[in-house]
Each structure stands twice: as structure tokens, then as C-alpha cells.
């Protein structure tokens, strides 16, 4: 024990409390819960230094698989589990390792696990497992090491496979070069912490451009979880924190299809209480994060750099032939899972591609998404049509975001009781804020728009919308001389335009008029708007007072 402790002190990764974000209350509570789990895992257990055990040499030439597996089997024979330490070295693996309940693995930063076969690296579940719920092999901690899948030479799909587990902790490890598949499959598991890890390199073969570095999934079927034959009980994941991780390319392979996400679902099942914070996500082919049928989601402080798109939050697909809307018995519900309580705050999106909107947050015709907060995010440069897109969302807010250089700033469709306030929108080639088709009880207030090539704010087909106290400067590029500061069209009803300020002082931009309202606009008023020197085109029947045009 003394020898083990001395080696561990010399070689373990240097981590301090300063590495933990710990700001949000929910984050702090979940972190404390997982920290308690980590302290218990390995307590009073047997300790081994792997390189000193028979059959393990770590020299890169000897096959260490059976030696390591024999050591892992000790967990089944020890009531309080085992703790393993892997010193620096290269550990050759010729088959998948099976890890059992109560195992703690800690690795020197230069401990390299070198996969030379066409399967995964590590799993906690056997093919003939009858585990259900969260009662499989859990209470597992893995810290450190470089887990090299050699995807430029070997296939094998997902590297780490975990299902039916609770109390899983992964810290400071690197999963490298997967081909094709996921870095980690976290399936039907609860109390999961993935902290300070690197996920680098994926070869998207067989057109698996959607493959996630970390996939959260539910125990749906053998098609979803091919590492098990039966006992598919549709258990989802819950209480998962992914923080301080890096996702990107390696020295041999490019970045992932997606960094974090899901792409299967079951009716009336959600992944719940998911926190994704302070990660760096670079160069994904598709979404950086895709929250698919998740509930109680917090996505904060992440950097998305050069991704195909930023993040997507949406319910499961539904339809007659859609397996994701079948219930746990295989009956088709033709319904989706309503998504609730989503917080997206303080993220930074840089040079997003054209795979989708930088942020796409959508319910569907079955259910509006509830209680979404998109606050304090920055979007710089986007090849996509929309920087932020909301559809079928209610009781939600978009506040204090900064959008610079995009085709469209914010687009809303079929939303209800949404506040769009305090955003800064600049250098937009088309429309700054667009609210089309079926929006109700909408507030667009205190936003600053400048250098917008098309219309500043354009609403059409809306009912009960207030547009107030916005500042619109430099709207309508020279080539779009018919652009308006605020444009109201297509039978809008109960529209209030109050206290907006317009200016044509920016060179190269010229509004045709500050406010335009189509003749089909009803029950509308315009009060206290300042469009000095620009002009207003208000339809007959509007209530007007104190406007300057």
C-alpha cells in the first residue's frame, strides 16, 4: 500500500479545485454528489500496480490483454472492489477488456493503451447480460491514460461501452482515433461524470457522419445497443455531467461527426438532468451538441469552433414508420416527447458551417418545447441561414446574445410567449430578427441592430406582438433599397410598435422607411417611435401618437 501510494503521488495527473467550474447551483450539487461517489469507489479495496503483475509488461510488444483482464477479474472476487494503477508504458490490447463493479483505474499520463484489433477497447456489460435499470456493473472510476483505437488501421466502432450502470467517473483520459463509432457509449446509466477528457480523431466510415464522441443512449434494442442480446428495458440516462473536455481532430484523423448527443429515442422516455459545461468543441462535421429527447438540460460556457453547426435541441421524431415514437412495447404512438427546461448560456460559437442553424431549438406540431432560456451567448461568423432558430417553443426567452456576421440573426416560427430582448445583432446579410407564421404573445424589445443588409425586424402572420425600444442603425444595404427598419405583413393582429429609434447614419445602408405596416394589419398601434428624416408608412386604421418620421 505504501509503495502504491508513493508511486501514485509522483505520477498521478495534477488537478486542483481551480479546475472545477462549480458556479451554478445545479452544477455544484451534481458535482458534489459525484465527488462523494468517487470517494467511496475504491475505499477499503485492494490495490495493484499493473506493471508489476504477471502477464503485464507495458513495453508495446508483449500482448498485455490477458494479464490486464485477469487483474480486472479480481473485482468479482473482492467485496470492496479493486484499485489499479498503470505506470507509463504502452499496453498492447488484442481484444476488448471487460470491467466489473467497483473498479478504479488510475493511469500515468503517458500510459498508452494500444488497440490492435477490430473491436472496442473497454466494456462493462456481457453479451448475455440480463441487467436492467441501473443495476449492472457500476461504481467505476477511470482516470488518465491515452486509449488509442488506431482507427487509421483498425475498425471496431465504439471505444468505451457502458450500460445499465450507476456512479461512473471518467477523468483526464484521452480517447483517440475511433473508426467508425463513438468514443463513449453511455447507455442506461445514472450519476455519470466525464471531466477533463480529450476526444480526438474519428474516421467517419460507412457514412456515419453523425457519430458522437460521447453518445447518451437508452437500452432500446440490439440495433441501438449491439453489445447485448436481450432484456432491452428502454432505461434512459440521467444525472450526467460532461465538463472541461476537448473534442477535435488528432494527428492522424479528423474531428467527430458530433461531439455530444443522441440519435435514438422511445416514446415517454427522456434523458434527464444533463449538464454540459466548459468544453471546447472543434471541427465537428455536424452538430457540436445534439440534445435529442432530453429534459432538464444545461449547456453553459462551451466554445464551438469551426463546427458544421452549433447545437440542436429537439424532441424525438414521430410517424407511422418511425421507431423513435414507439412505446416500450413496440406500439406506435405517433407522438413526440415534450422537451422542458433547457438553459443555454454563455457559449461562444465561431465560424459555424452550413449543416444547420448555429442554434436550432425546436418543438414540433405535437408539443411546444417549454421553458427555454438562451442567454449571453456569442455567435461570430456563420455560413448557416440562421444564427438562432426557434420553432414551436413557448414560455421562453432569448436575452443578451451577441450575433455578428450571419445571413439571418434570429428566426422565430410558431412560438408563444417568447421574449427576444437585449440582443446585439450586427453585420447581417439578410434579416436581423424574423418572426414568421403563427407566433403569438411575442415581445421584441431593447435589441440593437446595425449593418443589416435586409429588413431590421420583419414579422408576418403574428398575433399579439410588441416591438419596443429597439435601436436600428444602418438597415438596408445599398443593393436592397426597399428594406425597412420594421416590417409588418400578412395579416398581423394586435401589434404594438412603441419607442423604437431609427438612424440612417451608417455609410452604405439606407432604409426605404423606418416602419412599414401592410394594409391587412389590424388592431395595431404605433406610439413614440423616432424615425426623424427617414419616414413611416403606416396603414390606415392604426392608432398613432407621438411618432417622429
Automatic annotation (TrEMBL):
SUPFAM superfamilies in the record: Pectin lyase-like (SSF51126)
Every Rhamnogalacturonase A/B/Epimerase-like pectate lyase domain range: 55-311
Name of this chain's protein: Right handed beta helix region
Span of domain Right handed beta helix: 365-502
Pfam families to which the protein is assigned, alphabetical: Beta_helix, Pect-lyase_RHGA_epim
Organism encoding this protein: Thalassobacillus cyri
Entries under InterPro entries matching the protein: Beta_helix, PbH1, Pectin_lyas_fold, Pectin_lyase_fold/virulence, RHGA/B-epi-like_pectate_lyase
Domain of life: Bacteria
Region (Disordered): 1-22
Compositionally biased intervals (Basic and acidic residues): 1-18
Amino acid at each position: 500500500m505504501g509503495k502504491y501510494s508513493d508511486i501514485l503521488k509522483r505520477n498521478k495527473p495534477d488537478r486542483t479545485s481551480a479546475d472545477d467550474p462549480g458556479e451554478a447551483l445545479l452544477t455544484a450539487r451534481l458535482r458534489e454528489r459525484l465527488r462523494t461517489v468517487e470517494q467511496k469507489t475504491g475505499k477499503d479495496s485492494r490495490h495493484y500496480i499493473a506493471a508489476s503483475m504477471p502477464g503485464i509488461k507495458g513495453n508495446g510488444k508483449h500482448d498485455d490483454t490477458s494479464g490486464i483482464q485477469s487483474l480486472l477479474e479480481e473485482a468479482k472476487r473482492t467485496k470492496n472492489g479493486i484499485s489499479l494503477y498503470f505506470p507509463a508504458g504502452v499496453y498492447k490490447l488484442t481484444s476488448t477488456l471487460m470491467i466489473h463493479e467497483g473498479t478504479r483505474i488510475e493511469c500515468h499520463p503517458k500510459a498508452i493503451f494500444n488497440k490492435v484489433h477490430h473491436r472496442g477497447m473497454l466494456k462493462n456489460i456481457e453479451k448475455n447480460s440480463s441487467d436492467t435499470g441501473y443495476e449492472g456493473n457500476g461504481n467505476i472510476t477511470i482516470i488518465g491514460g491515452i486509449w488509442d483505437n488506431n482507427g487509421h488501421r483498425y475498425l471496431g466502432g465504439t471505444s468505451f461501452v457502458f450500460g445499465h450502470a450507476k456512479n461512473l467517473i471518467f477523468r483526464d483520459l484521452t480517447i483517440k482515433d475511433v473508426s467508425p463509432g463513438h468514443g463513449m457509449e453511455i447507455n442506461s446509466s445514472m450519476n455519470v461524470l466525464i471531466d477533463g477528457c480529450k476526444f480526438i480523431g474519428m474516421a467517419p466510415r460507412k457514412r456515419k457522419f453523425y457519430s458522437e464522441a460521447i453518445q447518451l443512449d437508452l437500452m432500446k434494442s440490439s440495433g441501438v445497443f449491439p453489445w447485448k442480446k436481450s432484456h432491452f428495458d428502454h432505461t434512459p440516462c440521467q444525472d450526467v455531467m460532461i465538463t472541461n473536455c476537448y473534442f477535435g481532430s488528432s494527428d492522424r484523423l479528423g474531428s467527430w461527426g458530433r461531439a455530444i448527443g443522441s440519435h435514438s429515442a422511445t416514446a415517454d422516455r427522456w434523458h434527464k438532468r444533463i449538464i454540459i459545461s466548459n468544453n471546447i468543441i472543434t471541427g465537428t462535421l455536424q452538430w457540436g451538441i445534439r440534445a435529442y429527447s432530453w429534459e432538464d438540460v444545461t449547456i453553459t460556457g462551451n466554445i464551438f469552433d469551426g463546427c458544421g453547426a452549433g447545437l440542436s435541441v429537439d424532441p424525438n421524431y414521430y410517424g407511422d414508420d418511425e421507431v423513435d415514437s414507439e412505446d416500450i412495447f413496440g406500439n406506435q404512438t405517433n407522438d413526440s416527447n415534450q422537451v422542458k427546461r433547457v438553459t443555454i448560456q454563455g457559449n461562444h460559437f465561431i465560424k459555424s458551417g452550413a449543416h444547420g442553424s448555429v442554434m436550432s431549438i425546436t418543438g414540433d406540431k405535437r408539443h411546444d418545447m417549454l421553458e427555454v432560456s438562451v442567454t449571453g451567448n456569442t455567435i461570430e461568423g456563420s455560413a448557416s441561414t440562421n444564427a438562432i432558430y426557434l420553432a414551436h417553443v413557448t414560455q421562453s426567452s432569448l436575452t443578451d446574445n451577441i450575433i455578428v456576421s450571419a445571413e439571418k440573426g434570429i428566426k422565430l416560427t410558431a412560438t408563444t410567449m417568447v421574449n427576444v430582448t437585449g440582443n446585439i445583432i450586427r453585420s447581417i446579410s439578410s434579416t436581423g430578427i424574423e418572426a414568421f407564421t403563427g407566433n403569438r404573445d411575442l415581445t421584441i424589445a431593447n435589441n440593437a441592430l446595425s449593418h443589416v443588409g435586409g429588413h431590421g425586424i420583419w414579422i408576418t402572420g403574428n398575433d399579439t406582438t410588441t416591438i419596443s425600444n429597439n435601436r436600428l442603425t444602418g438597415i438596408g444595404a445599398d443593393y436592397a433599397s426597399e428594406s425597412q427598419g420594421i416590417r409588418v405583413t400578412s395579416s398581423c393582429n394586435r401589434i404594438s410598435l412603441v419607442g423604437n429609434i431609427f438612424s440612417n447614419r451608417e455609410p452604405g445602408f439606407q432604409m426605404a422607411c423606418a416602419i412599414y405596416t401592410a394594409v391587412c394589419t389590424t388592431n395595431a398601434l404605433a406610439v413614440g417611435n423616432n424615425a426623424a428624416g427617414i419616414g413611416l408608412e403606416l396603414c390606415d386604421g392604426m392608432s398613432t401618437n407621438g411618432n417622429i418620421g
